[in-house]
Amino acid sequence: MSDVAARLLAWYDTHGRKNLPWQHPRTAYRVWLSEVMLQQTQVTTVIGYFQRFLDRLPTLPSLAAADEDTVLALWAGLGYYRRARFLHAAAKLCVERHGGDLPTGFTELAALPGIGRSTAGAILAQAHGLRFPILDGNVKRVLTRLHGIKEFPGDTATEKKLWLLAESHTPNARLADYTQAIMDLGATVCVRTRPLCAACPLQADCVAHRDHLTTVIPASKPTKAIPTRATTMIVLRDAHGRILLEKRGAAGVWSGLWSLPEAIDLEHAAVTATAFARVAESRALTPFTHVFSHYRLNVHPVLFDRATATPGIADNDRLRWCAPGDAAALGLPAPVRTLLSPLWEIPA
Known about the structure:
348 residues, alpha+beta, six-stranded mixed beta sheet
């Protein structure tokens, strides 16, 4: 066992997180679900979503059998919805090809949608005690600081170097504990800003600490300007308080989720709204901005109130009138849910 692993495990025995919901029991399905949820999301946020997801879909076959709306509704608010669609697709493949379980072979597991090398390693190490390294964001931060790697960890050459280091530090025993330990260290001690170096079991050998480089290691991703886009969201509300929702297509952001019809501006929004329904009045709602990973979206919502549906506009696979009580069962993007919640509370 490497000295790094020994010190990490000793630290974990005293300070590590041992009561996370996916650790009891630590099955492959539960570990997989937690690992996917934890991609770009904090543990404190994930815990509630994890439990609700497990309550509704407690096994891999139940996830595979669920419809997309159910999966996306359970995911709504976590963001990065492609993770949920990959999770759903992988579950279906496991039922078709692997007897309803996640495969225990690394190659087969890593090939499933949305898994890849690090997540596969985390599943096999934590659920089965197999020796595979991981390299998530927390681990990259620990290793780049420990070894004084100044290059951006997302670069191909740098990532290759980090994988070799991750492999060299991975012990031959207590794989589940070690995997959790190095993730915990990055999440609770070797944090992005103001790391708690005095509490770190690796402080004595950490190059970044020694050379006062913790503010610059790991290096940030090279920045580029984030473009800004604009859209007008059409909020059609009928006399019963129901709001017209439209299911987004397979491409683009929020794909497969139920959202609001959109238009390029207020004039086109009015034309689109009258194609769906006859409206009694309209008014602009408070605009807001939603930031995606690759662009900023300025949203200008307009309420078209006391609408009477045009003949032929009825519930179908792409359009539906949604009452407040129906919203929980649908995958709604978080900003759309936030926009609609007060409207559903106000009588039409």
